Amino acid sequence: MRKLSEVLIKSGAEIYRDIIPVALYSVVSSIVLVPILMFAPLPIAVLLLALIYMPILFGVCYAVHHRLERKERRNGLKDICVGTLKGIIPGGSLGVLFAVLGFILWSTWWYYGGQGGITGTAVGVFQTFFVLMALMSQFYTWQLVLQKTWASFKRWGKV
C-alpha cells in the first residue's frame, strides 16, 4: 500500500501535465453548448442538450480517457470525433435520462410547491433527493462505458 503523500504527488503531477489538453477538450465541447443555451427556446434547448451535447461530452471524456491511458501522442480532435460517434447511443440515452429526471423535478415542484403546506414541500424535497441520487449514480457509471465498453442498459443493471 502506498502512502497518501506519494499518491497525491503522483496525481498532482499528472494533473499539472494534462491540464492544458483537458481544458482545450472542455472548450471544444463548450463551442456547442453556448449557442444552444443562448439561442434555443427552453424545450428545444433541453432536447438539443440531450441529443447533441451529451454525445459530444461523451467524446470529450473518451478523448481524455485515451489520453490518460496511452503513452504515445495522438490527435485529440480525432479522439473526440471517434468518441462522439461511439457515444451517440450512450450519451444520447444518458441525456434523455437527465432530461426526464429534470422534468420530474420541475413538475413536482410546480405542482406540489404551488399548493403550499408541509405535505407538498415534503414530497418536493423527497423528489429532489431521489433525482439527485439518480443523477449522481449515472455520473459514476459513465466511466464503465468508457473503460469497459459496456452498453448503456447493461451498465444500468450492473451498478
Walk me through this protein's architecture.
The model has no long low-confidence stretch (mean pLDDT 81). With 159 residues, this protein is mainly alpha-helical. The radius of gyration is 19 Å and the shape is globular. The protein is 87% helix and 0% strand. Helix 2 packs across helix 3 and helix 4 runs antiparallel to helix 5.
Instruction: Please trace the helix and strand order, writing H or E for each element.
Output: HHHHHH
Largest sheet: none
Secondary structure class reads mainly alpha
Overall mean pLDDT stands at 81
Number of helices: 6
Low-confidence stretches: none
Number of extended strands: 0
Salient structural properties:
159 residues; mainly alpha; 6 helices; globular
In short:
Helix content is 87%, strand content 0%.
Compile the SSE list and pairings.
Layout: H1 4-39, H2 42-69, H3 76-86, H4 88-113, H5 118-148, H6 152-158
